[in-house]
From TrEMBL, chain A:
Keywords from the UniProt entry: ATP-binding, Cell membrane, Membrane, Nucleotide-binding, Translocase, Transport
UniProt-listed SMART domains: AAA
GO cellular component: ATP-binding cassette (ABC) transporter complex
Signal peptide feature range: none
PANTHER family: SPERMIDINE/PUTRESCINE IMPORT ATP-BINDING PROTEIN POTA, SPERMIDINE_PUTRESCINE IMPORT ATP-BINDING PROTEIN POTA
Reactions accelerated catalytically: ATP + H2O + polyamine-[polyamine-binding protein]Side 1 = ADP + phosphate + polyamineSide 2 + [polyamine-binding protein]Side 1; a quaternary ammonium(out) + ATP + H2O = a quaternary ammonium(in) + ADP + phosphate + H(+)
Assigned protein family: Belongs to the ABC transporter superfamily. Spermidine/putrescine importer (TC 3.A.1.11.1) family.
Function: Part of the ABC transporter complex PotABCD involved in spermidine/putrescine import. Responsible for energy coupling to the transport system.
Quaternary data: The complex is composed of two ATP-binding proteins (OpuCA), two transmembrane proteins (OpuCB and OpuCD) and a solute-binding protein (OpuCC).
GO MF entry, a single one: ATP hydrolysis activity
Gene assigned in the entry: potA
Keyword Translocase: yes
Biological source species: Cytobacillus oceanisediminis 2691
Protein name, per record: Spermidine/putrescine import ATP-binding protein PotA
TrEMBL record, chain C:
Cellular localization per UniProt: Cell membrane
Segment forming the signal sequence: none
Any one cellular-component term (Gene Ontology): plasma membrane
Membrane topology qualifier: Multi-pass membrane protein
TM region positions: 28-51, 84-108, 120-145, 165-193, 214-235, 270-291
CDD domains, alphabetized: TM_PBP2
Gene Ontology terms: biological process: transmembrane transport
Protein's name according to its UniProt entry: ABC transporter permease
Gene3D superfamilies assigned to the protein according to its UniProt record, in alphabetical order: MetI-like
Keywords for this protein: Cell membrane, Membrane, Transmembrane, Transmembrane helix, Transport
Keyword Transmembrane attached: yes
Protein species of origin: Cytobacillus oceanisediminis 2691
All copies of domain ABC transmembrane type-1, residue ranges: 85-291
């Protein structure tokens, strides 16, 4: 039984549906990310869950009870905003205490809980400061403390790290996950940054044009994308197409790509063209041919870019380009020069089927 | 040297303008100290006689009190209703919005003497005699446009997510307004209240039409007195009015740090 | 299950409708006090005065029972009254011109000042606005009267033999108006000055222009929107002004606002006073509408403060 469930939730703006019959079940204590490009409906959906936007169809339930008809101040959810939304005229202490004061919690308990919350976000001692005296990261932590101290049923985060610089973003996301797991609160995290989503989520809901394309744990999203959008949006991909030479039973075919033939598990028809994606890190290259890779084909290294832990090789074959990312410990980049011919190979299991025509 | 000349000339010109600005005020202040029975500047001799003689003119004290009461009432009501209306104008869409906004802004465009005449006729028509309330209503019309300008300016840049955060934490809409919104737009609201107070306190044009034997505001009293009498009492009353305004502004500056208000108004 | 979904959706629609109605009610509640007062104590009175201006004058009750256009015709065809209109406009034009000239240096000085100096100067320029116009004008009465400061000084310096009649003239009215309306022009010009990108000035100097040249070719034209907006404001405020001409001009220098007052308070001729009043409104409004139209056509406009 889901703790937070969305059933066929619809949102319409000016006669256009921006969220189209969205359904999702989130388990208690889970951290689910809404990931997608701008305009995909992730923030709109979050705002409907929080109650700042009305639901135009469907329903939202928490712990079995419908919440979509309740005003935002009665939903027992905690929200962390992109720009922190701290009350500028109150101290850090008063900001965090605000929700408790509203619930008429006795004064000494407020004191205790606020100080605990600030310790949890590592801001003990900052009680008397004002928001404008704090850095972005510190403000974000106060925002988190403020949302959690009221012990809400659900925690909602709306791109909380977008306004921070890259290094701080990484530090903060780890802190957020730690705290989330410590408290065990059901959490929704909206982001457009896939690395972030992959790093922290129990599950990711990839969204596009008002729909959920796929909901899965990060590894499955990355390695087994179910739609073309997910394949292309997450990580990088090369588009390739192959021709079916022969079909076999149990849905395998022999395909021809760039002079290499492989047995691929995909149902198809003889002589048809099938499109695939393959990720750059799944392409392997070698200067010499090896015996156990006789499906390798030749490509020419057009460019190489040193990226620290790995090197990116732009390979030209026929009139197409392939991007291959090779770890520098596997292949020393000084051994390959621009202009060299290399043997290129991939594992047929790493091919991701695509419905796109090129 | 010749490069500095235009600069000195420029600064001198500015100085002349500043003197021009302050001249009448200083003249009034200093003339109130003269020992003569008529107004002369520079004052001949120095005395506070004209201030102490005010006690024998209770009508000035009465007018002063009336002006303060009216100004206070105007400021409070104007600011309250103006702030509420500003919220509606900035955050809501409704039928006839443009017309309403123009209506509320139009007192700035109508010569106040015509408004004073119209108000007097209307009051006698509905049987509302001259009273503090009659004055306050008239002054509300004059001041609400300014209050709204100032409050709308504070509301326009307002970050709504702060209010959303308060709602999310459990505050109802009323609490959000009083605990969150109002404190944040405080400077615009207070600037509006101050402006309303001063405008009402200083008004002659409309108050001139809303008079009776016991309802005479201070500016009206001064105006009628100066047309028939020439003794320096007028200057001492005026000086007290000036000092009152200056003290009021200083107190407000101290208490609320309003210096920023004037530069942000610009 | 079908029936269940149906009622759930109905509940949703019901709630949305409730929310929408509440929102509408809230909006009107916010507007009601202001709107109410404005309709009853602003719109209605002006409307009644307007109607009155089309009625005849009755010596006993003030307002007669017949409809007439006579009040307007009388005003617009009598050279005396047209003279008053011209005088009102003339004074306003002079005021505007002089205000522009003396505001410029001050606006420049303040906009170049920084920090505390700037705050103090701004306060200095704005402070006369805090003092009642009655008092300020009275100060000018003291300064300009026959035995006032100006005359006494000129007599002492031997520049004149007899005191000049400065008070109760168009000159004194203009002086008083300039004094009262000056801050508006300064603020307006300063508004334009702030918007000028300082690198434009540096570019001009870098290209070899003298300060003089920079001022006339670059700064002046860029401040024109502010000057324009300020002029419209000063002109319409001047035309509408009552206190200043009443005190510094008195019955000798009658302007339209004074006429309105006189007809109503002294002659008790409400219809005629009303007509004059509405003609005054017309003049003031035409100025502002003309400005808005010109503003709409050019892109360099500045909003009236």
């Amino acid at each position: 039984m889901s703790y937070l469930s969305l059933e066929n939730v619809v949102k319409t703006f000016n006669k256009t549906e921006v969220v189209k019959k969205l359904s999702l079940g989130i388990q208690k204590g889970e951290l689910v990310s809404f990931l997608g490009p701008s305009g995909c409906g992730k923030t709109t959906t979050l705002n409907m869950i929080a109650g700042f936007l009305e639901v135009d169809g469907g329903k939202i339930e928490v712990d079995g009870k419908p919440v979509h008809l309740l005003p935002p101040n009665k939903r027992e959810m905690g929200m962390v905003f992109q720009n922190y939304a701290l009350f500028p005229h109150m101290t850090v202490f008063d900001n965090v205490a605000y929700g408790l004061k509203l619930r008429k919690v006795p004064k000494n308990e407020i004191n205790k809980r606020v100080l605990e919350a600030l310790e949890m976000v590592r801001l003990a001692g900052y009680e008397k400061r004002y928001p404008k005296e704090l850095s972005g990261g510190q403000q974000q932590r106060v925002s988190l403390a403020r949302a959690l101290v009221i012990k809400p049923k659900v925690l909602l985060l709306d791109e909380p790290l977008s306004n921070l610089d890259a290094k701080l973003r990484q530090e903060m996301r780890e802190e957020i996950v730690d705290i989330q797991k410590q408290v065990g609160i059901t959490t929704i995290f909206v982001t457009h940054d896939q690395e972030e989503a992959l790093a922290i989520s129990d599950r990711i809901a990839v969204m596009y044009e008002g729909r959920i394309e796929q909901v899965d744990d990060p590894a499955s999203i990355y390695n087994h994308p179910k739609t073309d959008f997910v394949s292309q949006f997450i990580g990088e991909v090369n588009h390739i197409q192959g021709k079916v030479l022969e079909t076999y039973e149990n849905k395998k075919c022999k395909m021809h790509f760039f002079g290499n033939e492989q047995i691929v598990s995909v149902p198809s028809v003889k002589n048809s063209e099938v499109h695939f994606f393959i990720r750059p890190e799944k392409i392997q290259i070698a200067l010499a041919q090896s015996n156990d890779r006789n499906e390798a084909f030749q490509t020419k290294v057009e460019r190489k870019m040193f990226l620290g832990a790995k090197t990116r090789y732009i390979l030209k074959v026929h009139d197409r380009h392939l991007i291959a990312d090779i770890s520098n410990t596997v292949l020393n980049p000084t051994e390959i020069k621009e202009g060299n011919s290399v043997y290129t190979y991939w594992n047929p299991e790493d091919l991701l089927p695509s419905r796109m025509a090129r | 040297m010749s490069r500095k000349l235009p600069k000195y000339f420029f600064n001198f010109a500015c100085l002349l303008v500043y003197i021009f600005l302050l001249a009448p005020i200083l003249v009034v202040l200093l003339s109130s100290l003269t020992t003569t029975e008529y107004i002369v500047f520079p004052p001949e001799g120095l005395t506070l006689r004209w201030y102490t003689e005010l006690i024998e003119h209770p009508e000035f004290m009465q007018s002063f009190t009336l002006s303060i009461i009216v100004a206070f009432g105007t400021a409070i009501i104007s600011t309250a209703i103006g702030t509420l209306a500003s919220l509606a104008v900035v955050r809501r869409q409704f039928k006839g919005k443009t017309a309403i906004v123009q209506l509320v802004g139009s007192p700035l465009l109508i010569p106040s003497v015509v408004f004073g005449v119209a108000l007097l006729q209307f009051y006698s028509w509905i049987g509302l005699a001259a009273s503090p309330l009659a004055l306050i209503l008239g002054h509300i019309i004059l001041t609400v446009p300014f209050v709204m300008r100032l409050v709308v300016a504070s509301l326009v840049g307002f970050d709504r997510s702060i209010e959303q955060a308060a709602l999310n934490l459990g505050a109802g809409p009323m609490k959000v307004f009083f605990q969150i919104t109002l404190p944040i737009i405080k400077s615009g609201v207070i600037a509006g209240a101050i402006f309303a107070f001063i405008t009402s306190f200083d008004d002659l044009t409309v108050a001139l039409f809303i008079v009776s034997t016991d309802v005479v505001t201070l500016p009206v009293r001064i105006y009628t007195y100066m047309q028939y009498q020439y003794d320096p009492i007028i200057t001492s009353v005026s000086s007290i009015m000036i000092l009152f305004t200056v003290v009021l502004m200083l107190v407000i500056e101290r208490v609320l740090g309003v210096g920023k208000v004037f530069s942000s108004k610009n | 299950m079908q029936a269940g979904i149906g009622t759930e959706h109905d509940l949703l629609l019901q709630q949305k409708k409730k929310n929408l109605n509440k929102k509408r009610l809230d909006t009107w509640l916010l507007l009601l006090p202001t709107l109410g007062i404005f309709i009853f104590f602003f719109l209605l009175p002006l409307f009644f005065l307007f109607i009155t201006s089309f009625k005849n004058f009755d010596a006993s009750t003030g307002v007669g029972n017949e409809w007439t256009l006579q009040n307007y015709i009388k005003f617009m065809s009598d050279p005396f009254y047209l003279g008053v209109v011209w005088r009102t406009v003339k004074i306003a034009l002079l005021t505007t011109l002089i205000t522009i000239i003396i505001s410029y240096p001050v606006a420049f000085q303040i906009s170049r000042a920084k920090g505390r100096t700037r705050n103090y100067l701004t306060l200095l320029v704005l402070s006369p606005l805090l003092i009642s116009m009655v008092i300020r004008c009275y100060g000018w009465v003291i300064l300009l009267s026959n035995n006032g400061v100006v005359n006494n000084t000129l007599l002492k310096l031997g520049w004149i033999d007899q005191p000049l009649t400065l008070l109760y003239t168009e000159l004194s009215v203009v002086i008083g108006m300039v004094h009262v309306l000056f801050p508006y022009m300064v603020l307006s010009i300063m508004g334009s000055l702030e918007k000028i990108d300082p690198s434009v000035i540096r570019a001009s100097q870098n290209l070899g222009a003298s300060s003089f040249r920079t001022f006339f070719s670059i700064l002046l034209p860029l401040t024109l929107p502010g000057v324009f907006a300020g002029s419209v404001m000063v002109f319409s405020l001047s035309v509408s002004s009552f206190v200043t001409p009443a005190i510094l001009g008195g019955p000798q220098v009658k302007v339209m606002s004074y006429l309105t007052y006189e007809q109503v308070a002294v002659m008790l001729n409400w219809p005629y006073g009303g007509a004059i009043g509405f003609l005054l409104i017309l003049i003031a409004t035409i100025t502002i509408i003309a400005y808005s139209k010109i503003l709409a056509r050019s892109e360099k406009g500045v909003a009236i403060q």
